[in-house]
């Protein structure tokens, strides 16, 4: 049996539809033709690493939006948990509740040590094509800096 693998650079990102922290339904296709999407999967709200990562995305949020990108965080926490997490840390971006882990499976986000949900960041361009994938449970800052470099390169017209 072939090993499942998530979308690779140059491939179309899987479509998804999930509820956000304010109860709105968010689809990847909502951004098609409009914005680059920085889709980051993280293990759990209100844990030290995930809080550091979310706050790092928050602190760079203006730079992402100026470059035409929307940041979206995904974990299996509930809408209510996401709402509290976003309010507590003043997160200006969308957090999606992947309750059954279906989107995590579609993107083949690995578990660390087979138990802890993985931490993977995707940059998806306006056409829905994956342009960057970074997976690291520990190197949290690189998720933000790596994504930002790619987003800025996509925003700059090539000459």
UniProtKB/TrEMBL annotation:
<keyword id="KW-0676">Redox-active center</keyword>
<keyword id="KW-0049">Antioxidant</keyword>
<keyword id="KW-1015">Disulfide bond</keyword>
<feature type="domain" description="Thioredoxin">
    <location>
        <begin position="7"/>
        <end position="156"/>
    </location>
</feature>
<dbReference type="InterPro" id="IPR000866">
    <property type="entry name" value="AhpC/TSA"/>
</dbReference>
<dbReference type="GO" id="GO:0034599">
    <property type="term" value="P:cellular response to oxidative stress"/>
</dbReference>
<feature type="active site" description="Cysteine sulfenic acid (-SOH) intermediate; for peroxidase activity">
    <location>
        <position position="50"/>
    </location>
</feature>
<dbReference type="InterPro" id="IPR050924">
    <property type="entry name" value="Peroxiredoxin_BCP/PrxQ"/>
</dbReference>
<keyword id="KW-0809">Transit peptide</keyword>
<keyword id="KW-0560">Oxidoreductase</keyword>
<comment type="subunit">
    <text>Monomer.</text>
</comment>
<dbReference type="Pfam" id="PF00578">
    <property type="entry name" value="AhpC-TSA"/>
</dbReference>
<dbReference type="GO" id="GO:0005737">
    <property type="term" value="C:cytoplasm"/>
</dbReference>
<keyword id="KW-0575">Peroxidase</keyword>
<protein>
    <recommendedName>
        <fullName>thioredoxin-dependent peroxiredoxin</fullName>
        <ecNumber>1.11.1.24</ecNumber>
    </recommendedName>
</protein>
<dbReference type="GO" id="GO:0009579">
    <property type="term" value="C:thylakoid"/>
</dbReference>
<comment type="similarity">
    <text>Belongs to the peroxiredoxin family. BCP/PrxQ subfamily.</text>
</comment>
<dbReference type="GO" id="GO:0045454">
    <property type="term" value="P:cell redox homeostasis"/>
</dbReference>
<dbReference type="InterPro" id="IPR024706">
    <property type="entry name" value="Peroxiredoxin_AhpC-typ"/>
</dbReference>
<keyword id="KW-0793">Thylakoid</keyword>
<comment type="function">
    <text>Thiol-specific peroxidase that catalyzes the reduction of hydrogen peroxide and organic hydroperoxides to water and alcohols, respectively. Plays a role in cell protection against oxidative stress by detoxifying peroxides and as sensor of hydrogen peroxide-mediated signaling events.</text>
</comment>
<dbReference type="InterPro" id="IPR036249">
    <property type="entry name" value="Thioredoxin-like_sf"/>
</dbReference>
<dbReference type="InterPro" id="IPR013766">
    <property type="entry name" value="Thioredoxin_domain"/>
</dbReference>
<dbReference type="GO" id="GO:0008379">
    <property type="term" value="F:thioredoxin peroxidase activity"/>
</dbReference>
């Amino acid at each position: 049996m072939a090993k499942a693998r998530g979308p690779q650079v140059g491939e179309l990102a899987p479509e998804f539809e999930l509820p956000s922290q304010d109860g709105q339904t968010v689809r990847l296709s909502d951004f098609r033709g409009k914005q680059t999407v920085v889709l980051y999967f993280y293990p759990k709200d209100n844990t030290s690493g995930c809080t550091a990562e979310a706050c790092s995305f928050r602190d760079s949020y203006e730079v992402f939006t100026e470059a035409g990108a929307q940041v979206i965080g995904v974990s299996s926490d509930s809408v209510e948990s996401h709402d509290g997490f976003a309010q507590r840390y003043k997160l200006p971006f969308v957090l999606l509740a992947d309750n059954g882990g279906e989107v995590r499976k579609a993107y083949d986000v690995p578990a660390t040590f087979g138990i802890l949900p993985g931490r993977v960041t995707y940059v998806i361009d306006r056409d829905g094509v994956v342009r960057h994938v970074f997976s690291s449970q520990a190197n949290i800052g690189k998720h933000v800096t790596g994504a930002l470099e790619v987003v800025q390169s996509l925003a700059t017209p090539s000459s």
